[in-house]
Amino acid sequence: MIEDIAEDEPFAPFERWLALAAKSEDLAETMTLATATPDGVPSIRAVLLKGIDPRGFVFYTNLESRKAGELFVNPHAALCFHWKSLGRVVRVEGVAKQVSEDEADAYFASRPRGSQIAAWSSDQSRPLESREQLERRVEMFTRRFADRNAILRPNFWSGFRVIPNRVEFWQDQPSRLHDRLVFIRDGDAWGRERLFP
Question: How far apart are CA 67 and CA 171, in angstroms?
């Protein structure tokens, strides 16, 4: 059944769809993030949405990772949410900007201690000699922070906000006559139009 989206902006319907997906899918906040090199060579990976508001879609990462390196050079990015149980997809295109230090600090402080230690331990996207090397690094940082109640965010770890200029809502329909509604940013406002499937 097609949901008729009445809003004149994409954020409220996105949050409604995400909340519905969370009832039927594990990790409904998983999104595919596409970046590209300065030469236009694409790469994709799955990341977790950690914030959504009218400013955009937020995820966190090691700033020395491949994805971050590509975004620093070419900030254009795309996201795709696929909720198979609902037969729905949301596609987002926009520009990624690093979140503020305060936002990154607050989110890092909310993470489980093991995840905080993992952030310190991983040279994300760089070659790893062996699994044992990673486990040794985890042990080293576990000892290093053993007497601290709070673990501070490493300066090489932060987040990006994808500020959308285009958001498409796709709903599966019989005979491949899918429903497609796209919001396109026009300054501070949003236009909307339907697309052929």
Answer: 29
Give CA separation, 87 vs 14, 34, 44, 143, 173, in Å.
Answer: 14, 21, 22, 46, 8
Rg (alpha carbons) of the chain, rounded to whole number: 19
Residue 1 has pLDDT above 80, yes or no: no
pTM above 0.90, yes or no: yes
- What is the C-alpha separation between 51 and 37, in angstroms, rounded? 25
Q: Which amino acid is at 18?
A: L
Q: Which amino acid is at 141?
A: F
The per-residue pLDDT for range 133-169, each reduced to its tens digit, is: 999 999 999 999 999 999 999 999 999 999 999 999 9
Name the architecture of domain 11-111+155-195.
Answer: Roll (2.30)
**Structural domain spans, the chain:** 11-111+155-195
- Which residues are known to be catalytic? 176
Could you give the angle at the alpha carbon of 51 between the alpha carbons of 37 and 127, nearest 5°?
40
Chain center to CA of 172 = 23
Sign of CA dihedral 36, 15, 29, 113: positive
Secondary structure (3-state) at 35: strand
